[in-house]
Amino acid sequence: MRPFLWLALTVAMIINMANSLVFDGAAESTVGILSGAAAIAAIIALVRTREGRT
Predict the structure, then answer these.
(1) CA 9 to CA 46: how far, in whole Å?
(2) Pairwise CA distance, residues 25 & 46, whole Å
(3) What separation in angstroms does the CA of 5 have from each of 21, 30, 43, 44?
(4) Is the pLDDT assigned to residue 53 strictly greater than 70?
(5) CB neighbours (10 Å) of residue 46?
(6) Is residue 52 very low, low, confident or very high in pLDDT (cuts 50, 70, 90)?
(7) Interacting residues of 12 by C-beta distance below 8 A, sequence separation 6+
(8) Integer angstrom CA distances of residue 36 from 5, 19, 25, 32, 40
(9) pLDDT tens digit string along 10-38?
(10) Domain residue spans in the chain?
């Protein structure tokens, strides 16, 4: 599960960085919002599943 979350986070960050180069207008906003939400969800899941959590 954790490798998939790291992969999802990495892909979301790459898409977010390339967003302005590839998309324009409403598509840019939509892709930015969706990839940002995916990145935030992956970060939350990674934090919640880390070992040694108290």
Answers:
(1) 9
(2) 32
(3) 25, 22, 8, 10
(4) no
(5) 15
(6) confident
(7) 35, 36, 38, 39, 42
(8) 14, 11, 17, 6, 6
(9) 999 998 889 889 889 999 999 999 999 99
(10) 2-48
21: CB partners within 8 A, 6+ apart: none
Query: C-alpha dihedral over 30, 31, 34, 39, to 10 degrees?
Result: -150
Alpha-helical segments (H) within the chain: 2-22, 26-48
pLDDT band with cut points at 50, 70 and 90 for residue 54: low
* Predicted structure pTM score: 0.78
Contact between 28 and 54 (Cβ < 8 Å): no
